[in-house]
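Table S2 (continued). Query chain:
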Amino acid sequence: MNHKLNPATIFLLVIPPLLWAGNAVVGRMIHELVPPITLNFIRWVLAFLILLPMAAHIYRRDSMLWRNWRRYALLGLLGVGLYNALQYLALQSSTPINVTLVAASMPVWMLIVGRLFFQAKVTRWQMAGALLSIAGVLIVLSRGEFAQLLALRLVPGDIFMIIATITWSIYSWLLTRGNDGELRNHWADFLLAQVSFGVLWSGVFSAAEWAVTKPAIHWSPALFAALAFVAVGPAVIAFRCWGLGVQRVGPNVAAFFSNLTPLFAAMMSSAFLGELPHVFHALAFMCIVGGIILSSRR
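Corresponding output:
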């Protein structure tokens, strides 16, 4: 692992937040064309079909997939079935800028989940960083008007995104536990192992969505293009680039790049949705990034 950044590594680590921001913006653009849970299901079915030719050998009888099926069923539930579905639900009532800024508080929830459930140590710098990042999230939730915190008037999408962020934190800690054996040798093998169960979970959730509501899918060339993007870009390409970048510089350095997501989301929202960022968005972004910088100090 080479901890020195070079142009190729920077390129690898910039691609994922760009695609994640695009996922939020596209999800907002098509939120009236396809139900959110169904969107998540279709996205991962397409990703499954893309990954299958590269990693179908994981289904052999002696594969670690079957020996640890409960682990991959849980990872698929949290990382595929729940996180992305909650994000698309959030985009029904919140903006891509808000959603990605709330998601940028991920390191804070990582600390909390690690301390409570995985006996991870938390330093004073990490605590200070957590408080600063939480301040950034509160700025987003209050829309920059702190008097609103007393009334606590939250948009449903903000709540969904907080739950999604906690879900992803638990998922990320679980990734560091367990024996994955040969499935860790190739990124497509490990991702397909999770997606195989995640597609089942998301299918169940989508069926429930159709059973309790009256959704409709408005098929169009724009929707087909959006589905292709969310399946290929954020689900497959971003995962591959992120894995390569982390291998080169380590997770601590790579984590700083993930906070480019709300910046890219703000730029894309302005360009494609006409949703201009506000001063409180910039202040929240600075708080969240400052908190992560503090958390990384030793």
